[in-house]
Structures are given as structure tokens and as C-alpha cells.
Amino acid sequence: MRSHYCGQLETSLVDQPVTLCGWVNKRRDLGGLIFIDMRDRTGLVQVVFDPDQQALFETANKLRQEFCIRLTGTVRARPDSQINKSMATGAVEVMATELEIISRAEPLPIDFNQQVSEEQRLRYRYLDLRRPNMSHNLQFRAKVTSAVRRFLDDNGFLDIETPMLTRATPEGARDYLVPSRTHKGKFFALPQSPQLFKQLLMMSGFDRYYQIVKCFRDEDLRADRQPEFTQIDIETSFMSADQVMAVTEQMVRGLFQQMLDVDLGEFPRMTWHEAMRRFGSDKPDLRNPLELVDVADVLQEVEFKVFSGPANDPKGRVAALKVPGKADAISRKAIDEYTNFVGIYGAKGLAWMKINDLAAGREGVQSPVLKFIPDAALTAILERTAAANGDIIFFGADKASVVAEAMGALRLKVGQDFDLVSDEWRPLWVVDFPMFEEADGRLYAIHHPFTAPVNVTAEELKANPEAALSNAYDMVLNGVEVGGGSVRIHNNDMQQAAFEILGIGKAEAQEKFGFLLEALKYGTPPHAGLAFGLDRLVMLMVGASSIREVIAFPKTTTAACVLTDAPGVANPEALAELHVAVTVKDS
Amino acid sequence: MRSHYCGQLETSLVDQPVTLCGWVNKRRDLGGLIFIDMRDRTGLVQVVFDPDQQALFETANKLRQEFCIRLTGTVRARPDSQINKSMATGAVEVMATELEIISRAEPLPIDFNQQVSEEQRLRYRYLDLRRPNMSHNLQFRAKVTSAVRRFLDDNGFLDIETPMLTRATPEGARDYLVPSRTHKGKFFALPQSPQLFKQLLMMSGFDRYYQIVKCFRDEDLRADRQPEFTQIDIETSFMSADQVMAVTEQMVRGLFQQMLDVDLGEFPRMTWHEAMRRFGSDKPDLRNPLELVDVADVLQEVEFKVFSGPANDPKGRVAALKVPGKADAISRKAIDEYTNFVGIYGAKGLAWMKINDLAAGREGVQSPVLKFIPDAALTAILERTAAANGDIIFFGADKASVVAEAMGALRLKVGQDFDLVSDEWRPLWVVDFPMFEEADGRLYAIHHPFTAPVNVTAEELKANPEAALSNAYDMVLNGVEVGGGSVRIHNNDMQQAAFEILGIGKAEAQEKFGFLLEALKYGTPPHAGLAFGLDRLVMLMVGASSIREVIAFPKTTTAACVLTDAPGVANPEALAELHVAVTVKDS
Fold first, then answer.
1. What is the pTM of this model?
2. Where in this protein does the record put region Aspartate (chains A, B) (predicted)?
3. Cβ(A437)–Cβ(A446) under 8 Å?
4. Which of A31, A95, B343, B548 is 20 to 30 A from A450 (CA-CA)?
């Protein structure tokens, strides 16, 4: 029905007839002529209707915004004075010769040119997706998946599908459950990831696997979470952590080169401990120049318990965050707001110190806690933070985890507030995670229970689990974890040890993961893998503020689809067949 | 860890050192040497261990089937007498120099060389997938999806993901339901297809969409059905049925060329009516030379009600199926069996006629119904079926739908029993389906309620729905429907008419499809699409007997996964959070 897309028209086509199919983006009547901007997925082009062609002009006069039309005309160059440089096709226009109105549009329920609530945008998503930036986001996403697939195909990875209706997976989030009709009272779970299946595929000898696959977590949602999200899921056999990082880094570097013409360079590596120490985060945003500085050692003897308590506690931490040159800019009121802010992360307060005049010694320092800090400690702090006149220093003192979280968050917030974040791409690998973290008196896996430790035997792991490092790696880009993975445990003893440490007893392990433990007995290859969050990666690449901007039909933050009105009330007969009943009246 | 894959070794590598990773496929001890066939996903190669290398030989002596090993050695040419032509690498072998046992294997629970029950195969699927033909099937499937994606990407189709957690879809099969935690008492449905979403994407202007996507139907299973299956889902705007057929035919033709070196040629088209008349099926297997011949017109006057009843009924049919040269081969007992067979499809009997001697007239014909058939009718039947001596003719007389189904099935069965099915690829398009079929006094959509009729207005459609043809098309290959699609309704009036004819009242239409009816108001483009069943297509291409042979982790016929033991009992707390309870005790 068309000879060209709107966005393809350019001066080389001048004087040629073209037929376009698309939508009326905008209509203007000017000097007795009718102008429309006609739109399809490739872009816009201006069309002109001349009143000399009466029948055509009358049809054109019926056009309204978002009518779907088919149009034939001749491409002509615009006069120099009318060239529109903000439009890709702005050097040309189409002189219309034929027009067919394919379907009319009622006045739109959402205005493309005004800010519309996200609720309305999602309710009329099919219209919202006509907006050029949303169309671009999804076209960009399609190009990303295509490029990823080509890279992986070309590198010997096999796209193998794993089940969606499966057994509860052990990632730790809440599962979506699906009642079985044939197995009364039993339920499938939708996968939180294909983790175990991809490991089984390695045991089957497929050597290199990938899948771009939907995963599901029934969690309360945030801006960058959705109940269903998409993973680029990768697993390899006979490859070391370094090799997996090398090939996936190559993939991401190629993607940025191809899609954005950006050279990410070689990704630096940072240990988890260094990341926590310098940035209070396992996904540091390296575009932000602020860093935490540890000062516990110089505060152990002070009489101020807020400092000396954590400074003397092996699990405590005291860290300083210097913000250069912002002593004046950060008022008492701003400090109070930051104090409230770190409170969200569990910090009980926020000590601070403004450096007015270094040459003046103690007199030149303004701080409510100054009186508690002896000269030697003050000098050490000022030296260690390389403080200068006009700087402000914040202090966090608490359990190490609280300090990292609160001061890491403060670092990001201050960086944002004062526009300190540079406009660049800063990828890195975070490595050497601890295997386990302690909470509520028991140990949890930082990655998942199938992650291999670095260089220990099963016996050694059991003897001192908290000291063990895992052979895991996260790819972090501009403060966002875009991917993470690990070398997996490939023998039964080690897997049993990991379960034991996590408090998963023999019976429970057998019941939940018996098939995995069994599979480990039959010549399991060493294997390692990684998964990328596709939504987040694309969100970063297009510069969107939420993953909902790169998903065609996302759910709201209450996990609903306002377009189709899902979830909905189920047919009682269907529920009876599934052997379940609703336990709330007010549905 | 490896320098080569096993399957890559060939004479050009002779005298070169290689390092391989893989499994012990087989071990043989012969003439004081140890031979193993070493396997990875690319194939097998023979490795030789010489007792002169004592330490190496001792390690080799520990090898058992399916040990996972890393091996270094030198490639050498086999002597002419020992070249194994049934092995791709049979011209070479590897003289081992180093061997590392990576992981041991206990004796296998399934024997690769013996017939094993499918239950056992599925329980140990990770081992079953090591068998070369299963490994081949899944590698072949990965190549198919890769080729399909490249074709579609290169032709401007955008891969756009649609939701898995959605509203019940209208395909008619039973939905899998997913209770919502945040919306008490409400349920998502897993999609039977992305039908409505892909139509919405056309309304958004994406122009060409595709997705290789999981779909779900909670139906009782057959050999070629699975609760979750994979569709190659396609939708286009501004393209006619012919254009959609052309581009998808080109895709499939390219796929067969590339994967199997088979030229499918141009696909013939056949109307649904012709397919039903000649083959009693809307997915005729053209490799089978047998055809049905209608004979109702010559039997209207006979006194035998079994024939004259259907012959005079406008909804009846009398059809003959001639099996050339099988009069002797098909005994009375065989005829009884065929009679039982057609009974499965609702036929109340199976009349037959053996042609012993055409020259002898009535005397030369043997048939229990001969006495009811006057000379003129007999002559007409023999002429029309072009009967010859030694032929047998079966007759079906009943409602047209019963005759088509029973005689269509008999045609396939006889074709199989006597090996009449040629060994070739016979694709075709079936077109011009009726819009609706009648059952139990109401009308059902033969495709789905969004299929556009050919050349009628909404008013005309409502006036005579049973006469309307749909603008739908099925791609059939060797008797299997591999794909199907249609032009969609793209205006509100027509969509409302279709719902009305299907007995979907205004209120129900609004409740279920309100968003679609609303979307149709805003400049909907004409659109058309198609979906292929990927599992079936790959099954056909690799010559497997079941789609389970081309799915990594399929469900059993009771919709269970015996490997992971899914579905399983749900945690009561999880169910409480989801506001549902199990209504059966014996779970």
C-alpha cells in the first residue's frame, strides 16, 4: 500500500511520486493551503494540499489529528527559507495528489503535547505509544535485542527455551503461583529466573546457552521493578569467571558502539569491599566524584559514644563524606533535611563539620561535635579527607551496613542536588563478594545458593562461611546493576555444604532441589553464567527515567494493567475446575 | 579450557596438539590400549591411551561412561583400515597426552543404547538431552529461531514483548489463571496468544511486529500439544492477505532451503471448500494420493436411506474414497476395523465396494450395498472414481461434517497402512474459510472474533453470517497446520457485528473487549497477521514424532514436570497472601 516510509523522504527523491500510509500528526491551515505533518514509525513529513485540486482539498479538509490515511503525492524541495532543520525530512515536503481516509479518529482522550498522568497514558497505551519518543524507545529496544542475539548466535550460544510453568524457584522473592487443573490442589510457579534449568542444560552438554526470557517476581514495585521483567540469560560450560566477564563485556561494549556510537572502553574491576568502603554501595555510580573515607581508627578513644561505639565495634564503621566547596551552600535547614534523609536508611543522626578556615585550627572549624573531637583526631580527619576551606564533611557512625547504606545514599543525593554527576558512561565489574551475609542471626546467600566460593573446599566453607568470597561478578553501569552472575557449584558435596550453611536441611534440600543434587552426580561440567536485566539496560541506553518507558504494556505500581483491566474477576466455574476458592468477599 | 570441539577434528589438524572438554561416551579396552569416544555438543571423536604413559594410563583406566573430562593430545590420521565412515571425525583420532577427570559419573539411571520409557527420559532429562539426536534437535531449533529472527529483522519487523500476566484472552481454550496478591480475589490469565496486544501495537503504528513467544492453553493434551507452547507471532499494517502470505511463505521457504537444503517451491492455494471436498480436511496432507469423490447427486433416488437421506439433505454428504489395487489386500476383517475406526469420528457405518471385474458389469462388483444401487448410479460412481479392477471403494454418507471428518481420517489411515504417503514436502495455503460454523444452534468463529470477512459490510455480515467467507489463511505442510492468520477487523461497526453474531452481547463485549472497541475509534490502520507453531514446525523439520522431542523440558500428557516434580504443594502462607484456598483435601 505504500512506496516509502515518511522518514525516508529526502532531496534525492525530489520530483518522484510517493505513496505513504500513516497518521495525521498535526494539521495547519495557512494561506489558503492545508498542511499536515504525516507520521509513521520512521518519523514525520510535511504534506501540502492545494485548493486548486478541489475534490482532494475537500477530503483534506476533513482531516483531523490521528486520522489514518493513505496519501500519494510528489516530493518537492522546500525553498531555503522554509527548510525545517529540527525535522529529519525538513528539506522536503509532499505535494498531495491523492488522499484516502482509511479510518477516522475521534478527539483523543490524551493530549500528545501536554503532560498527561501516567495512569491516563497507560489506559490509552496504544495512543501513548504513537508518540515519537515512545515509538523510538521500543524500536530501540528491538534493535538491542536483535544485536544481542546476533552477537550470542555468532559466538556459539544456543537459544534454548525453559519452562514458564515450573516449580517454585529459590531466588527468594515471592512467586506467582498457577493452580493446576489436572493435579488437584497443586500449583506451578512462574520462574523468577531460569537458573536451575540453565544449569541443567550445561549438565546436558549444550556448552553455551542464552535466552531472552520473561521472569516473574511478586514484589512490591518501585520505579525500576515490574512483576514481569526480561532477562538476557546466559550460561556457559568450561569457562572461567574471567572468560564469562570478557565475552559479556565485549557484548555490551559492542552494543553501545553499535547503538549509541559510544566506546565504553575496558571495564575496570573493583572488589565488593572496595566498593562498599569508597562508595557505600555494591553498585557504585562512578560518575559521582564524592567518596567515603573511613575514620574509625582515629575516633576509637573519643568520649563521644556515637563515634567511639561503632569505632570500637568490629561490625561498626565510622565514615566521612566530604563535599568540596559546599559549606556555604548547605544551610542548617538543608543539613536537617539530609539528616531526615539518612534516617530512611536507619542512621540515627548525621554529624557534620564545616571548614571555614584551616589556618585558624579548631577555631576555623564549625561543628556541633567539634567539642568531642581531640586535636589529633581532627587533624587526622582533615588530612585524610584532604579538606579545604569551604568544604563540608558529613559523618556516619553505626553498624557498617547502616553506614554504607545511609552514607552511600547521601553521596548519591548530594551528588544529584549539586549536579556533581558527570555526563559520561562509567561501567565497572564488582567482584569478590562475600558468599553470605548475616541477618537475624542466620546466613543468607548474597547471590544465590548455587554460587561457587573462591578457592575453598566444602569443609573449609563450612568451617568459616563468613570469610568465604564467592566467585560472582556484577556488571554495574552508572550506578545501576545491569547484570550479575557467578561460577556455579558443580559438585554435590559443595552444594550440600552451601545448603547446610543456609539452614536448608537435608530433607528440605532433597524435597526442593533433589533433582539438582541428583543431576550433580553424573559428570557435571564446570559452568558459569550471567543474567542482564534487559529493561534496565535499555532504560539506561535511551535515558528513560523508568523501565515503564521501555516496556510496551507495563503494569502500574500496584501490579495492574489499566488498559485491559487485569487482573480481573475469575469465572466461578473456572475456579472450581482449578480446585481453588477465593478467600476474600470484597473482590 | 579447550582448543577445539570434538566434532571439529579432521585430517587438516593431523600432528597438531588439541585440548578437548566433554564426556566419555563409550570406553573400550582393546589390545592393551584404552579407547574412548569422547563427546561434546558437536559430536564424537576417538581418543587412544597408550600404556607406555603409565600415569596417564592409570587415570584413563578410571574412566567410566559420562565422566566429564578435559583431555589434551595429538591428532593423528587413522590407518585406512580403521577409518570409521559412520563417524564424522572417523578419519582421525587423538593420541592422549594429558587427562583431567573433572567430574565422575555414577552408573546412569537411563541406558542411552536401549529403549527407555518416556517417563524415565523426562525424569532424567538432563541426561536424555546428552543423546546426540536430542542434542541435535535442540541445536536445530536454536538455528531455526535464529534464522527466523534474522529474516524478520531484515524485513523491518520489530520484536516487541507483550505481557504474560494479562486478562483472559478469547481464543476459547481454558486459561491458566494467576491469583493477584495486591488485587484481592482477582486473577491474571496467562495469554493463549498475544492476539489483542499485537493488534494494539498496529494501532500504535509499529507497522510490522513479531515475537517468538510462549503461549498457554490449559487443555487435555495430545502428542502435539503442550500446556505451554511457542508461537512465531507476526502482525503487519497496511498489508493485504496476499502480501502477508507472500512474506511468510518466503520466510518458510528460506528456512527449508537454509536448514534442510529443500526447495519448497511456490505454495499452491486451495479454498477451504475444495480441501474439505477432496480431502475431508482443512489441513490436507497432499503427500497422500487418495481423494474423496462426491456422489450424492447420483444416489438421491436410491431406496437405501443410508445413502438417499444424506444425498437429499442440503447439510448432508455422500463421498466415495477409492483405494486403487487394494481390493485383495483389504480383508473383511480389515474392513471391520476400518468401520470401527470411522466410528470414532461419528460415522455410523462404512459401506464398501470391491471391483473384481469391470467387464462383467454388476457381476464384477462385490458389495453388501450393491443391491441398493441401480445400474445408472453404479456406472456413474465407477466412472467418477475412475475405478479399475482390483480397487476398493469406501463410502461415507452422513452430515457433511461427519463425512469429512470420518472419511478424511480414513484417507490418512489407509494411506499410512499401505505406505501410500510419498516422501516429499507438500506445503499449501488453505484460504477462503467460512467466517462461522454452526454447532448446538449457535455460531462460532472458525478463526477468532477479530477476523475480517471478505468483501461484506457489517450489515451484510449480520444479514447472512453463514455465507460469509473470512479473510483468513492457514499454512499447511504435510497435513500439519504450521501457521494460521487473517486480516483483522479494523473498524468498530464490523467488530460489534462480529460480536453480535457470536452471541456476545453489548455489555459482555464492553466488559471483555471494551479497550479494543475503544481503540478502534482512533484511526486504526488495516492490519493482518499470522502465527506459526514453532514446536510443530521444528518437529516436522527434524522428523520427530512428538513436539516433546523438540522441547528441552516438556510436560507429560498430564501436564506435569517429572524432573522438578511440578506442580507442587504450595506454602499455606503464600496461598493466604494470594487470598485463595485449595478446595480439595486430597492434594
1. 0.95
2. 195-198
3. yes
4. B548
